[in-house]
Amino acid sequence: MSADDDSSADSSLNSGDDAWIHRVLEDADIALWTYDWETGSVCFERDHCGSLGYVGDALPRDRDGWLSLIHPEDMERLPSRIERIREGASALFDVDCRVRSAQEKWVWLRVCGRVTRRSSDGLLVGAAGIILDISDRRQAEVALQDSENRYRTLVENQGEGVGIVDEHERFTFANPAADEIFGVALGTLVGRSLYELIPKEEFGRIRDQTDQRREGERTSYEVTFMRQSDGERRTLLVTATPQLQKDGKSYAGAFGVFRDITARRVAEEKKAQLEDQLRQTAKMESLGQLAGGVAHDLNNLLSPILGYTELLLEDLEQTDPMCQDLLEIEEAANRARELTKQLTAFSRKQVLRVQVVSLNDLVGRTHEMLRRLIRVDIVIELSLAPDLGNTRADEGQLQQILLNLTINARDAIGGVGTIRIETRNVAAGTEWHPGAGDDPSVDYVRLTIRDTGHGMEEGIKARIFEPFFSTKPKSKGTGLGLATVHGIVRQHGGQIVVESTPGEGSSFHVYLPRTDEAAGPQRKRHETADLATHSETVLVVEDDDAVRRHVCRLLARQGFRVLEARGGQEALDLAKAHEGPIQVLVTDVVMPQMNGKEVYLALSELLGDLKVVFMSGYTDDALGERGVLDDDIIFLQKPFTRRSLVEKIEEALAN
């Protein structure tokens, strides 16, 4: 500092008043300095300057020497900074800059000082102060800044929503993902309350978790809300960590992570639905097996009941008092036979006689009968596609579908209404139809029955094809109608789809595989006015003793010579021992050890030209795929009458 300065200028740091500073900083890595503004000379209290490593004459003493050591980037901002110091009203200042050390390293220094001015005119004459090595602090600040940048980058690019709320549940921070999750404009979530975004009905459900969080517990819960941008219903998994005040007790807010789990919840719901469908399918399959077995046993029981009742009615005079009792027995047995038909249809165990069928022709022939079954206050409308294709099916079973669905529609209409019967072609891939494993390349014909009835809720619609499930009073049906329809459709390789809305009626769509074959003439039933007496030999093979005795008695009454066997091996032994010809084999299909088809093939090799009539309560796939019989197979469905038995044998002999 110049000796010519005004005497009122501040004294050097060497004055006695500042002697205590020298004692305190004697061993510290801090340099004391003074600067003369006019000459540009720098004076240090010691012969070194902290971490710079300059000793003795190597330490720069002039302004230019010092400026040459300053980092170029810092030199760009120093002139303006120095100018502000010179012209500033305050005498105190500090400047941070990087300076090259004697070891050619950049060292961060903080230059703190106080300017001195002449009291007469306020002209700047010099400065004095200290130099601090702040390299470690700057490195820590850089590391902290890097850490903050990494944290911010991580949070802002996080796929999950991250937010901080204060003690009033108002957002003080939210990353872009949180804005997107809640459906608000980018950056606008801050300042909004969480209560504005979540429906009030959800508050009660998450109240316990909110209370626990305010008591300092970390919580995790699900909440459902409507996204503000599009109104879409979303489900969030919220994990909230409470933040406490400085006292460590009072609630100050929370740090939260918001994960959108809507897709996962939808997937879980679909999985649950599929599991329910799988369980339902397994249950229906088990019921089908049970129903088929029960129907088979019932048919075996009903065969002798109906057969012997028929014989007794023939033997008694019509005036006999017992005739009326026998007619009641016959009527009850016939009702039971109809029930077994429904059971075999549901279990897909009934026998199908397939031919090419036109649905339009079937609806046309059945329309008048349907008109008689439906109340006069219900209108039946037809909308039949003129170019409708055909399908291969059992015409009697299709008629059963049409009758059941139409009657079901009638019962669904409480008063005045309309039943609409439609047909149309459905090209492969142009219309949805369900069924795992179905060939998507198959063309279909569709039969639709629509009604204007009361419709169904989802819970009822999901169960309508279950056997014995019905919404009608017990006196109004068995609950097998729709189960029967479902079984028939599936046995034909088709599908049935239901659309229904409460108060808007129902539509049942039946899809059947389409064929380009032309529909043939209807199969004519063999009719005989009076049963003829026969003398041919018939071999009856049946493992059920009651059925076998009943069949043998019916045939014997008609003049046939009858041989009977309990099973396949007994039939072969009997045929080998029999000296005369055997013209006809009447055999059950489902038997232990050898089924009816195997018995017929074995006997054909032994006897040559052998006619056969198969009989069963169901086919059990022994004669054809899904119980569909070829045209050349003569089959007799149990239970049967003497006339139907004799007519089948006559048909076999004629072929």
Largest beta-sheet details: 7 strands, mixed
Query: CATH superfamily of the largest domain, called what?
Result: Histidine kinase-like ATPase, C-terminal domain
Any idea of the CATH class of the largest domain? Alpha Beta
Question: Structural class, from helix and strand content?
Answer: alpha+beta
Estimate the mean pLDDT confidence.
79
Broad shape = rod-shaped
Number of domains: 5
Question: What kind of assembly state do the chains in view correspond to?
Answer: single chain
So how many helices?
18
CATH architecture of the largest domain: 2-Layer Sandwich
- CATH T-level topology of the largest domain: Heat Shock Protein 90
* Euclidean distance between termini CA atoms: 140 Å
Radius of gyration, in angstroms, nearest whole number? 50 Å
What fraction of the residues are assigned to beta strands by DSSP?
15-25%
The count of DSSP E runs of length 2 or more, i.e. the number of strands, is 24
Task: Name the helicity range.
Answer: 25-40%
User: pLDDT below 50 for ≥5 consecutive residues: which ranges?
Assistant: 1-27, 524-529
Description:
The model is unreliable at 1-27 and 524-529 (pLDDT under 50). Helix 9 packs antiparallel against helix 10 (322-346), helix 12 packs antiparallel against helix 14 and helix 16 packs parallel to helix 17. The protein is an alpha+beta fold. A hairpin with a 5-residue loop joins strand 17 and strand 18 (506-515). It is built from 18 helices and 24 strands.
